[in-house]
Amino acid sequence: MMGGQKGAAEMTAITWRRLLLSRIAAPSSLSCFGMQAGSSRAAAAPRVFKQHCAHRAMSSAKPSGQPTAIRPELSNYEQALRKAAAQKPQDGAEEDSVLPRVKMERFLRNQRTPSANFIYKEKRDKPNLHPSQVICLVKAAGRIAEGKGQSRFDATQQACHQWLQDYQNLHMTDRREMQKLRPRVRTPLAIYAPPDAPWHDLPSSIKKLTAAKSPWLAPVPGLEHGLASVLHNDNSKATPIWANLGGKPASAYVRTIVQPKDINWNGIAPFTPPSFDDTLHALALKHKSKYKASTSSITGLLSHVYQVISNFRPADTSQLSAAFKNEPNSFSYSIMKKPVAAILRAKDGVFGIDSHKDEKQDNKILIDLGKSMERMLTMPENEFKSLMLKPLHVKGKGEGEEGSADEAVASVEAVDTVGGKMKSRPAGSELEGGGGGAAAAAAAALAAATPDDFLLGAYNFSKSHGFMLRSQLDCIYGDKQIFDIKTRATHAIRNCFNLLPDIPAHERHLHFVDYKITQQTGLWNSFEREQYDMIRAAFIKYAGQCRIGRMDGAFVTYHNTQEIFGFQYVPLATMDQLVYGSTHMATLHFDQGLKMLGILFDHLTNLKKGSDDPIHVSLCPQQAGRCMRVEVRTVISETSCPPTEPGLDSQNDVKLGDLDVWYLFVETYVNGKLELKPWDIAKTDLFEVKYRLVAAESCISSHNGAPGDAQFVKKHDKKRKSTSGR
Q1: Which of 465, 446, 462 lies closest to 454 in space, CA to CA?
Q2: How many angstroms separate the CA atoms of 499 and 533, rounded?
Q3: Closest by CA position to 343, among listed 10, 37, 2, 617
Q4: What angle do CA 416, 420, 421 make, to 5 degrees?
Q5: N- or C-end of the chain: fewer Cβ atoms within 10 A?
């Protein structure tokens, strides 16, 4: 009897296994449905079949003819797929046997892209019968693919296979084109200075930033629309838009974002580079500063210097939820590896540091919204609509017709004005871009109605170690709490500009506006995801800007270019803790960074002494060898290019001379002992930095070194490890 029961169980397991092989997958992929390694197939097959039947039952229980998205609660089938996607393929496994959806999940995970969305449509011959055909629509990374099959499983795999094929074909085509434009350069694995290169000591005393007093040309605005209540909320999490603001729900005006095409860009002053700021230049001469810079031109350079001095200390993401336990805590590519360039322009013995970017502004939409949303958050609704929206055409005209110039001007010069500011716009008017004489006349009328001090801004100036630094003040609460306003697009929007190469750059973000923030915590669609990205990529710059402007923190607005999802106030002390480890370490590294930049710029300007040509400097930290690559070129000629579109700042077409490369090597000591990881420095510790600046032709690399040099590199590595404090 026992033998008969055992034989029946084996036959049952074989029957289930044959059914699964015919309807689900190949034997090598059955592990993703519950067959764990080392378990008996006779025991695992019935459990797998039950999971499959449960999944089919959920599919057939849903109404026919209606598109249905997968529920947030993951079934055993979904959990098994996610688990299989997270696992690495075993050695010797056939790539063709891996399910297309598993491949797609792995691909999205490697690209750090939100998971795919699936929508199903079922066709049934009769209401009570199983569907005769299932259509699956999958959307991920801005692309949509369709698959058809007799079951949800078949349709899902077909859709994923089609998505992977389409995406990889376009990606490879774009990659080949980019390689033609930018030839691949082999980067040395490690670079070392020659043994006889002398070390120099960086002054260890800390000199705090001091204020360079200058009157504000305009008052600093405050928050409107009840947003000041966010400052008093728990700043460890965001305040969602669906919460009350100032004791009442957020209005539709606050939720919706006005698009750049509807903004009157005459109401926003263009950016003034430090080299052309007369007030900044006068203060630099008065305080005998050798360099002058703005927050936007200096923070990128300081962040790169910090990477080398701290030996690429990771950020602190320990306070995030378990969803980010396995996510990297290192800084992003733009902070760790992307070169940052600046142009040094001399005038009266003072060098202005202007940031310089070669690449096109594909993310122009984010730059524009950063300017217009700052106005929207700090201006009353009526004032914003009257001063910051484009002129309106008069309604009632036929298609293709335009109102007269007098009518257009009348539509702008609405009713009364109080204190030079227009009170309201005409009721019932529409937002239209407009063109021709009517639009030009209306724009001129609006520019004339703009108050004289509307384009003026308030700035704080600080000085330290021969630098005169400028910081614009965005907002104030009370009399002293000054803070910066930051607009933060969602993860999908920020990373979409490197995707979809077949779509124009100014339209790519429109394919990702369906990605919304719906929860506080979680790996995707959450405020916590945006906070994680800011810790790794933005807080180091935010902290530098707040420190230069003597500000208390940053007011962050989360959006997807179409609607606002929430707000959060992040104090400077919080950013210091997450990026540097403590406020003391933040102050220490900011001071050391300014001193290091001053020494570096002194060396480079002395090399070009006697020449009035501007100097182009590019910094790029290199973790191998713990050094900074410094590229120096003379600016032979530059042509000022006016903005080609409203909202853009003027650009300079720069022609550069021959390349000169230097390497800045750094070593750090804590209490007199060499420390390769100076990641925890107390106020009582003595922190010392040694540096040496060596020309590239004198350095030793692991690629082009001679045999004798290779032995030196090996000994040098061994010596550094043996003398390390940890």
Answers
A1: 446
A2: 18
A3: 617
A4: 70
A5: N
